[in-house]
């Protein structure tokens, strides 16, 4: 099989690329996805996230684990990643967050020429169909539907009021003129058309409307094990079932911050010494592959609820949830439409911060170990993460066998500055949660600590984990450790690009799905030589 472009990974970026590149009828495109179709009801109904996130069972989820984390008391972390068309946009909380404009200017300062805020904003707007309409900052005609929440819970509004009671500013748009403030998140949810109220994954937004094109082939449940390299050029990909798929122009890796470096190293592209240790022939020595891993470490405070208008796993709560299905079927509203993390805030923890350095999420249920430990009681949780951590991790091979998962070391709290910042963040969250607006819901606190800095840090080390934003392992730049150049071409090897969150030089200040879609939109124009 031969195509002009072969895209490995049908996630948030891969779906965008497949749709955009196949707009040219003279260009043939093959999209290869290891998982399934991404159009089942658990994906389409927002509340289905709870059943996919835990990885028990593994529904549309790679359900990866990290190596033991010294900064987290030797615990192994959990890394849920989407395994179906749409990737993690099919199992996430749907929050539409771009980050701060300064994040992208910082990318440019780090060598990612052309990725400053002024250059990327048109691609955010191009991707977006915001229910509020077009503006200087928002688009209204793009494939990705962005909506206000259909039925936010009263406790989510109370969290916003609690932030205001602390003197924090309020905002109606985290992607507006100023990011700082508290408010309700917008979500990637259909606001018009026959799928109104359903999740708008990147597959639903971009790929499904394009699948009828004769020049686009989509292969699902197809695992790519290696890239074939010959004479300094990536020529083809080899699948687990022995199929060879050749690219006339380029192979594009969109397998994510874990999958893309994993596949590169399995193919002999990466740190030469590491590859030789595993007996893998070195095709291209590229030391930065798998390095620079960054993620947002999240810590949650949980409470039993004095009111019943939140979520729980007791019979009464489950009956309420089941009965809410009638509202969903009738008008696509109610609890089935929730993103779970409904209210939030971007705040600064100290006077010298030029950008918000903390993000908060108010979740209308108790999230304990990524929904792998369930609580019968009605409850809620509030989360805080450090937006620009100093700690760095890595992705490495544990085996030359492509069936073995990569060794993921997040490096959480390996930099002591992050530990001190997280303690300050938890104190700030505790102050917000103590405000009167949350009093009607504030029951017994789960996981209490002794109130000291040491007690808070011990609690963080015992329970904190990812909030699902890994980036950076194939970062773009111009220095010797950059993996891709600012055009996202693999440095020193022809015929290969990487287009996903792994190319981000630094974490952005927020959720990473919308930025990943933006990266793919801009990459499509780079590939088509429009910029």
Describe how the helices and strands are arranged.
Elements: E1 2-8, H1 12-21, E2 29-32, H2 41-44, H3 49-53, E3 64-69, E4 75-79, H4 101-109, H5 117-127, E5 128-130, E6 144-146, H6 154-165, E7 181-184, H7 202-210, E8 216-219, E9 224-230, E10 233-239, E11 244-253, H8 256-266, E12 269-270, H9 272-277, E13 284-285, E14 297-305, H10 315-323, H11 325-331, E15 341-347, E16 358-363, E17 379-386, E18 394-396, E19 407-409, H12 416-433, E20 442-446, H13 453-463, E21 465-466, E22 496-498, H14 513-527
Parallel strand pairs: 1-2, 1-11, 2-8, 5-6, 11-22, 12-13
Antiparallel strand pairs: 3-4, 7-15, 9-10, 10-11, 14-17, 14-20, 14-21, 15-16, 16-17, 18-19
How would you explain this protein's 3D organization?
The protein is 26% helix and 21% strand. The relative contact order is 0.19. By secondary structure, the chain is an alpha/beta fold. It has 14 helices and 22 strands. Helix 1 packs parallel to helix 7, helix 1 (12-21) packs parallel to helix 14 and helix 12 packs across helix 13.
Concise summary:
The protein is 26% helix and 21% strand. The chain is of the alpha/beta class. Strand 3 and strand 4 form a beta hairpin.
Strand content: 15-25%
**Mean of residue pLDDT?**
97
Number of strands: 22
Structural class: alpha/beta
The count of helical stretches stands at 14
State the helicity in percent bands: 25-40%
Described by the principal axes of the CA atoms, the overall outline is globular
Oligomer: single chain
Roughly how many Å is the radius of gyration? 22 Å
Distance between the termini: 30 Å
Low-confidence stretches: none
